[in-house]
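dumping this here so i dont lose it
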């Protein structure tokens, strides 16, 4: 019957107390590295083939994009465990430290989170209001004047946006964002994750743009980051020398 049993390690089995399947592999090429990396980063299974080809060309680009998004959401495959967890209201992941993603990248490389399927279905076809507001484009540029000299990194790490007005009058006055965007509330420090861009000849400007965006206080991205300089590299070197 041993040929029907997965490879296992007795110590790991006693600690994990669940099914394991381990095998020692000794090799010094990149094959194992590529396999593990591709396995960890593989995309979810879906039936998205043909979605883009079947879009109505007569609709506006926003209408086609919304249609594609709704179809992709409906074609996503999930496993039985995830389905059960979602139905039971279980958290799909957890961590001791809270992590926040800050898309501090150039606009053409910046991702956005679509609003819910139910919300999108009610929008008129010409509407462009399809994305959730975010820290980079909506909240930080409209931060309270009390945080004028605080960088995007510090605000994202130590504050979060709330819609309900704080009960304390002074706190509400101090933390109210401009343009009726809501309020900021100070929270336990979070770990900030931002896009990784290598420093090389091709991505140099993008690299320095992202550093400026994270660590130099700004209101208008297109004006305040360059601050009169012609390149982001020059602007960063001047900023870091102050």
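and the seq i came up w/
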């Amino acid at each position: 019957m041993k040929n029907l049993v997965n490879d296992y390690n007795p110590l790991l089995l006693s600690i994990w107390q669940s099914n394991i399947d381990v095998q020692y592999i000794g090799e010094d090429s990149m094959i194992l590295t590529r396999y593990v990396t591709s396995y960890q980063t593989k995309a979810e299974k879906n039936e998205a083939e043909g979605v883009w080809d079947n879009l109505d060309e007569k609709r506006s680009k926003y209408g086609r994009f919304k249609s594609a998004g709704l179809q992709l959401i409906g074609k996503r495959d999930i496993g039985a465990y995830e389905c059960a967890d979602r139905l039971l209201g279980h958290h799909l992941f957890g961590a001791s430290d809270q992590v926040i993603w800050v898309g501090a990248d150039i606009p053409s490389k910046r991702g956005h989170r679509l609003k819910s399927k139910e919300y999108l279905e009610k929008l008129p076809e010409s509407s462009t209001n399809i994305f959730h507001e975010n820290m980079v484009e909506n909240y930080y540029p409209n931060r309270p004047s009390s945080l004028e000299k605080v960088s995007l990194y510090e605000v994202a790490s130590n504050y979060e946006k709330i819609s309900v007005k704080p009960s304390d009058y002074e706190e509400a006055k101090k933390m109210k964002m401009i343009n009726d965007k809501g309020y900021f509330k100070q929270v336990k420090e979070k770990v900030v994750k931002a896009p990784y861009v290598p420093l090389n000849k091709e991505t140099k400007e993008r690299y320095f743009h992202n550093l400026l965006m994270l660590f130099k206080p700004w209101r208008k991205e297109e004006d305040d980051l360059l601050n009169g300089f012609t390149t982001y590299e020059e602007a960063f070197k001047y900023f870091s020398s102050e």
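The mean pLDDT is 87.
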